Amino acid sequence: MENQRMTHIAVERNRRKQMNEYLSVLRGLMPHSYVQKGDQASIIGGAINYVKELEQKLHFLGGNKHYTTSRDNSIMVSENHELAMADIEVTMVESHANLKIRSKRRPKQLLKMVSGLQSLRLTILHLNVTTVHQIVLYSLSLKVEDDCKLSSVDEIATAVNQMLGRIQQEAVLI
């Protein structure tokens, strides 16, 4: 009986060691912003969110174009012509918004977008930029400030679309 107990303890110790090694590798594969704490639940939750974002980037960069409004308070606006303006996806939870923009690369586009978002009273908390040839995907985590006049995903998507239209017009004039 004692020998069986000691075997069980050794097996359990090895399982925990292996689990901790896997969690350490998993944590190392993700950007630091996805794991705020070092506990197992935070690492796994961060990994789930990171994989979801990578799936969205893959989908976005793949060129699938459509317009959807879903029950989870999100909206995706896509242009019908080939990336003339941008594909925009906005999701909101309370006073935080996630914004994904896929567009052609243009001179000083990121600088103008940051400035434009600030003027809309949308504070950038996190920004990720992915490029493939002349296509760029911006993934932004935003804080909707109390004095922001935009209160829905539709309003944010429309304002961002208008801002990108101005940026495109300026790029054509250069």
UniProtKB/TrEMBL annotation:
Residues 3-54 form the BHLH domain. Pfam families: bHLH-TF_ACT-like_plant (PF22754), HLH (PF00010). The keyword ATP-binding does not apply. It is found in: Nucleus. Keywords: DNA-binding, Nucleus, Transcription, Transcription regulation. One of its GO terms (cellular component) is nucleus. One of its GO terms (molecular function) is RNA polymerase II cis-regulatory region sequence-specific DNA binding. This is Basic helix-loop-helix (BHLH) DNA-binding superfamily protein. It comes from Actinidia rufa. The lineage of its organism: Eukaryota, Viridiplantae, Streptophyta, Embryophyta, Tracheophyta.
